[in-house]
Amino acid sequence: MKFEINRRTLLAGAAASFAMPSILRAAEWPERAVTLAHGFGPGGNSDGIARVAAEGLTAELKQSFVVDPRPGAGGTTASDQIARATPDGYNLIMFTGAHAVAAAIYAKLPYNTVDDFTFVSLIAGGTPFTIATYPDHPVNNPRDLIEQAKKASRPFTYASSGIGTTLHLAMELLASQAGIKLQHVPYKQNSQSMVDLLSKRLDFVINGPASVFPQIQSKEIKAIAVTSPKRYADLPDVPAIAEVLPGYDVTSYYGVAGPKGLPANIVSKIQGVMTDIVKQDTSISRIKGLGSTAMASTSQAFHDLVKADVDKWTKVVKDANIERI
């Protein structure tokens, strides 16, 4: 019995000694440069907001946070790489709402969209998409759109940046809730969809407010609706779809995440910096300029947001009979 107790004590001590270095490393994180990936190309909104986060983390934690664009397969290439990474805090990712959309639109993914990640904190969100049309289009607001779509001899057409994007599914959600039909026309370039809209070959475009704001200000196009639950502060005269369809809500968000099992103290450190960043005037201004609103969150709130979005978009894809990729 005495030998058994001593053997157990020795084994416990050995286990503790092996665990101690990893515990200490997590406590001292970061000791070297950290990669902050995202699934889109350089120069876009995701890249810009990732750089706001990276610069804030670099300044506060005294180590370099390097933004690493990894475009491909709607952001899923980067997500897969992070899901497979060691959860030591040196490989992080900036997720957008597209992370949840991918779970709905792809028939099979090499990772679990919710369970294979540690959702740390939002840095931006709450910003709607804007539906716009040419100036003399008979539709002027969401109520017009729904009423006239029900009477039209053909479905209204709308442009988005591609099949299975959040923009595409936002319009399909509108069609589903309103009981109308809309015809999707995907475009690779926003500039070409704008040309076709102004030539009246399209009825509507849907995009982030920053992408269409210059044309709205110059009155080249008119905004008829925003997709947030309430009106957007920068477009106060434009009705929210939710004013006609209560409960309708599609807004963009951006947040920092890592692989499943990211140590709690690393999560806490990042959350603390995110909370500070979103209070800084410079960060608020930069994020607003990228068409979003600065905001932080708890890990659980970010997790729950993604999970709810996966459920919502999966239903939209099924109800609209959109073929999964």
UniProtKB/TrEMBL annotation:
Bilayer-crossing residues are none
Which domain of life does the UniProt lineage start with? Answer: Bacteria
Q: InterPro entries from the xrefs?
A: BUG, Bug_dom1
Which of UniProt's keywords are assigned here? Answer: Signal
Gene3D superfamilies according to UniProt: Bordetella uptake gene, domain 1, Periplasmic binding protein-like II
CDD domains, per database record: PBP2_Bug_TTT (cd07012)
The protein depicted here goes by the name Bug family tripartite tricarboxylate transporter substrate binding protein
Name the lineage.
Bacteria, Pseudomonadati, Pseudomonadota, Alphaproteobacteria, Hyphomicrobiales
